[in-house]
Amino acid sequence: MAHDERRRPVWxxxxxxxxxxxxxxxxxTWTSTIGPGRFPSPREAFDxxxxxxxxxxxxxxxPVHALHSAKLVLLGFVAAVGLGVPLGxxxxxxxxxxxxxxxxxLLLRPIPPLAWIPLAIVWLxxxxxxxxxxxxxxxxxxxxxxxxxxxxxxxxxLVEAARTLGVSRRxxxxxxxxxxxxxxxxxxLRLSLQACWTTLVAAELIGAIAGLGHVLxxxxxxxxxxxIVVGMVAVAVTAALMTIALDIVERRAMPWRRA
Amino acid sequence: MVATENPAARGxxxxxxxxxxxxxxxxxxxxxxxxxxxxxxxxxxxxDREFVAIVGPSGCGKTTCLRMAxxxxxxxxxxxxxxxxxxxxxxPDRAVVFQQFALFPWKTVHENIDFxxxxxSLPEKARRERIAAAVAMMGLQGYxxxxxxxxxxxxxxxxxxxxxxxxxxxxxxxxxxxxxxxxQTRVVMQxxxxxxxxxxxxxxxxxxxxxxxxxxxxxxxxxxxxxxxxIREIVDVLPVRRxxxxxxxxxxxxxxxxxxxxxxxxxxxxxxxxxxxxxGTVSSSTGGSAS
Lengths: 259, 291
Description:
The complex is a heterodimer.
Chain A: H1 3-30, H2 42-54, H3 62-93, H4 95-108, H5 117-124, H6 128-152, H7 156-164, H8 169-206, H9 212-221, H10 225-253, H11 255-258
Helix pairs in contact in A: 2-10, 3-4, 3-6, 3-8, 3-9, 5-6, 6-8, 8-9, 8-10, 9-10
Chain B: H1 7-12, E1 20-31, E2 34-46, E3 51-55, H2 62-70, E4 77-82, E5 85-86, E6 94-97, H3 109-117, H4 124-137, H5 153-165, E7 171-175, H6 183-199, E8 203-208, H7 211-217, E9 220-225, E10 230-236, H8 238-244, H9 252-257, H10 259-273
Parallel strand pairs in B: 3-8, 3-9, 6-7, 7-8
Antiparallel strand pairs in B: 1-2, 1-4, 4-5, 9-10
């Protein structure tokens, strides 16, 4: 739609990226301003990538680590969305539901997801279950809040119009409340997904047997900056792929926004 | 639809199927613990298949009247009945056309028109025929699969009117339906509505702040004043329209040029400004008006 307007910023962005790559070469390989013990040269980073891709690092190859992390994020995210979105919708629609849930929610809301990690470890140990629980906490709050505000943001006259047209309760939910709240729900899911990745990496740094956070942790113990950079980029790429998948779902779910 | 009888008295017992009766209706709002009156002792009747417009300044409670007939709000005193049943909830027998169109942005034109219809237990074929008829009536052919935001304001309001008409409601409640449209579109929509009202008459309660629109469209015009909202007078338009044969004109500006039209318009303006005492000659003042 806005192709012509977008083309220029994309090229500007690519140019900035290219300048940064050149600067990376200049500061490491060409001039050695930054020593190899602090930040890797492009060559070292590439070697590290080849090592983890071919031979593996921290007990597994890169795709195994990435898939392991992605699996935990997906589990926690789906569970949080599955519970959070209906709860948020109910709180937005029914005053009773809001009265029951809101005080508890206001209390839990300011707790940073990372602060749940110790409790999760005490409950579930250092295994995957604890990580899924922490990810669930991270994604749950934004999912609830945005679904709740989504329902509240529906223009009242749309609800009134539906009532004057004599719709059933079920159709009010499926054809008015959910589609009306959908743009904000997806905004919330985006935030949730972001929070999931932050939380996951932190949880894996504390203790894990696989995963991208585990790669980062192992590389820091080994004083291996090149592998740290590879791990960071791998987190960025995996998270970006999941965000793109979410975008595709979003566009499918709201065809009226494309038209 | 005889103008000189007392509609409120007649509506109180044994009113026709779709008459709307306001019987000594008052409505108060609460704010910060103090209540202030929005409507005070309003009584009038919209007869079966009569087109009544309410005019008045902002805050005179005219929209509140419509919302009470729709079942979206309720009186603090008095009763509102439609078809001799007290209004307790919204229902598809009383279709509402909102100023902000209130179309569902996530539904196509066809789906929007179908929205209320699907609640009725009609066979698929009958539903499709009704929608096709409504689409043709409002000139929406070719736009069935468009989304509301792809249409102009005038087209959107046509969809909203089609969505109401397709239910074949006894009563049509229109809350400043053309208020959000530009002047040209507004005139076109007024002309179409008056044709529609002739081909397919319904009991209509029409809210507007535009005096010309009210005189052009309505059989009777309820003039309201502000704080609290009261009926100042009810002005009969139908006898003048019939006597002066306004129907022979296709265009609204030709009607609005008629001396009889100008006279009525000026009269209502004076009433709104409070310059003229209510008079009984052309009006059919009801029990509760201009008290």
